[in-house]
Amino acid sequence: MPYGTDRARTAARGVPDDGGMAEAWAYERHPSAPGSPHPLGARRVVSGVNFAIHAPRARQVVLDLPGIGSYEVESRTGSVWHVEVLGVAPGQEYAFVVDGVPVLDPYALHVAGGLDGNTSRLRAYVAETAFDWGADVAPRVPWDRTILYEAHVRGLTMRHPDVPEELRGTYAGLAHPAVLDHLVGLGVTTVELLPVHHFVTEPTVAERGLVNFWGYNSVSFLAPHSPYAAGGDPVREFKEMVQAVHARGLEVVLDVVYNHTGEGGEGGPRIHLRALDDAGYYRHAQGHYFDVTGCGNTVRADSAPASALIVESLRYWVREMHVDGFRFDLASALARVGRGRVDVAQSLIATIGRDPVLRGVKLIAEPWDASMDGYLVGGYPQGWAEWNDRFRDDVRDFWRGSAHGGGGVAGIARRLAGSSQEFEPSGRPPQASVSFVTAHDGFTLRDLVSYDEKHNEANGEDNRDGHTGNRSWNCGVEGESDDVDVIALRRRQAANLVATTLLAAGVPMLRAGDEHGQTQGGNNNAYCHDSPLTWVPWIPDVGWEHLRTVVARLTALRAENPVLRTTRFYTGEVSPDSGREDVRWLHPDGRPWEERDWHDGSTHTLGMALDGPRCAVLLLNAGGDSLEWRLPQAPWPDAYEVALDTADLERTGTVSDTVAVAPHSLVLLLST
Q: Which parts of this chain are annotated as the region Disordered (predicted)?
């Protein structure tokens, strides 16, 4: 359809009042046409930009282009209002005005503002999407070789001495060779980034003089967070980051927050979805928001407009931004249908798993939400992995057990073996379990062995926020200590925890900063601090350098030895080739393991022998006494190399018959 200036209704903004001459000139340069209802958002076409927005209840929609003019959108197809404007270039600010209310485009690709809590300052811009990917290839790291590294774009590099100051805290900073060298040397394969969708600070947080640092408060599902861009184009800089990460053989997985938005609860700001289609985008019950996220609203993920927005967002990040997968925050909120009941098979979760674009990337669920019925560990379908909090809890409990009067080894054995009770019923392998002991939410690894109680006073909520059941052990002193014995025990306990994570069947996940011995002073909910408290310390405190050694050594051993990354659950059956069980559980005294031993709450030791091309023996001593551990006899190998001893990282050599295991330590042996 031909372009015409008759689509213009109101005066062009940003031009002088000269009797209409400037206005007419602006519209002659930027005439409009009806455009297309698809795709939604602001997307470049041959002659300009097509603007389209879903607004089913709107009576009037105006497109505002500062510096050009305002156009009444007169074309409507179903619920979508659309207009095409000639000559609009990338970088052009725009907004929709729906029934007199300015609305941020939910499909915007470039958004800025709002970090200070003032959502009225949010702005959308036409994005430049052209990019030369060159020879970029997705690494496609197999699940059994995947080692996740959870990191925050800003927090990862703000204190890095080798990253130029102007690049610290940005996508470009993360892509700096010094950072990538560290990740490759550490042996991780996949960087899992905390939210990078453009997000805002909640007004209540801003009122306390703090900010939303973690980013779990999205206002745009397609736009990368603009403050993370060192230059003026966050879309291009994000792509350049992915390109650089891929060039080193590493993957990029995004932590995505589709369960709620930054519009908050009733009385919250009208940013976009609430103004456009409140009933379509948000879940309601009895006239109020149905909130299973703890953030005031829950996205109605099974509705047509919400599911379309989420799926389009995911596809965009895969196709256009080249990311390798997603971790879904509070994924159980997305597993709800109808009036809010949980039904994974009929939900958006199933839709995502069937999608031809998405089923080929890594899909990781945080398998719970903030409700009583949303805890779904083990409840996701094939093709999905899950954060395994039972691994976290059982591993923490085992290593602190003797000090807290606890004990028993059934839990730690289940987790070392891949959590078959949770994941085997759905036909998934051990790699369905994302195994971790620390994450962004909770204590750092160092704080986990230094504090019994949370210390969140700096959050401004009188220490009421954050988890209370930390399953931590301070090794005898609360907080920092100068007692050499306490310090030595803490360092060993930290090594035990990270080693257990890397040696268990499943997909290990490490928290960025833990390898440097990062402390947050006992704050287990540091979501609101953009400061050295949360920034990764690249120069570790003296004595905590050993954690990098432990991680790098074990990631290399995992890569070299298939026995340390099994793709099937253990059965205890004897191999006709080797004459050995696939797993044998070991007592320190060498006697056969019996069923009653699993129920002995006084036990603080567990051994595990694994059959393979190179057999492995893993010995865990959470007790306070040294042990002389008797090794399995023939047909098991008669000699082993000491691959790791958390009590003495310099220990090497060959052992047979027995091996000394220090108190509160872990020993890994590999057959010679």
A: 456-476
Q: Are 343 and 336 a contacting pair, CB within 8 Å? A: yes
Portion of the chain with pLDDT greater than 70, in percent? 95
Q: What angle do CA 145, 148, 149 make, to 5 degrees?
A: 140
142 Cβ partners below 8 Å, 6+ apart?
A: none
At residue 5, does pLDDT exceed 60? no
Q: Choose the final residue of a domain: 540, 563, 586.
A: 563
* CATH number of the domain that residue 361 is part of: 3.20.20.80
Integer angstrom CA distances of residue 621 from 364, 368, 449, 496, 594: 32, 32, 16, 10, 19
Number of domains comprising the chain: 3
The CA distances from residue 37 to 30, 54, 469, 487, 647, in Å, are 20, 9, 51, 63, 65
Task: Tell me: do 554 and 592 sit in the same domain.
Answer: no
pLDDT at residue number 620: 98
Evaluate if residue 397 carries a pLDDT over 60. yes
pTM, two decimal places: 0.95
Written as six digits, the tokens of 412 are 């730690």
Question: What is residue 257's predicted lDDT score, i.e. its pLDDT?
Answer: 99
Burial of 18 (C-beta count, 10 Å sphere; 0-12/13-18/19+): exposed
Is residue 117 very low, low, confident or very high in pLDDT (cuts 50, 70, 90)?
confident
- The verdict on whether omega for the bond into residue 31 sits within 30 degrees of 0, i.e. cis, is no
Integer Cα distance of 147 and 151 in angstroms:
13
CA-CA distances (angstroms) from residue 210 to 199, 200, 268, 662?
15, 12, 19, 45
Q: List, as one string, the DSSP characters of 51-118.
A: EEEE-TT-S-EEEEETTTEEEE--EEETTEEEEEEET--TT-EEEEEETTEEE--TT-SEEE--TTS-
Portion of the chain with pLDDT greater than 90, in percent: 92
Chain mean pLDDT for the chain: 95
Residue 610 bridge partners (DSSP): 583, 616
* pLDDT of 23 over the 90 cut: no
Q: How confident is the model at residue 12 (pLDDT cuts 50, 70, 90)?
A: very low
The H or E element spanning position 530 is none
Give the structural domain span for 16.
Answer: 5-103
> Is the pLDDT at 193 greater than 90, yes or no?
yes
As annotated, the active-site residues are: 329, 366
Tell which of 542, 563, 584 closes a domain.
563
pLDDT tens for residues 118-152?
Answer: 898 999 999 999 999 999 999 999 999 999 999 99
Measured torsion, CA atoms of residues 46, 48, 54, 60, in degrees rounded to the nearest 10: -140
For strand 80-86 and strand 48-54, is the pairing parallel, antiparallel, or unpaired? antiparallel
Report the C-alpha gap between 422 and 418 in whole angstroms.
9
| Rounded CA separation 311/253 (Å) | 16
Asked, for residue 248, whether it belongs to a domain, the answer is yes
When computed from its CA atoms, the radius of gyration of the chain, rounded to whole angstroms, is: 27
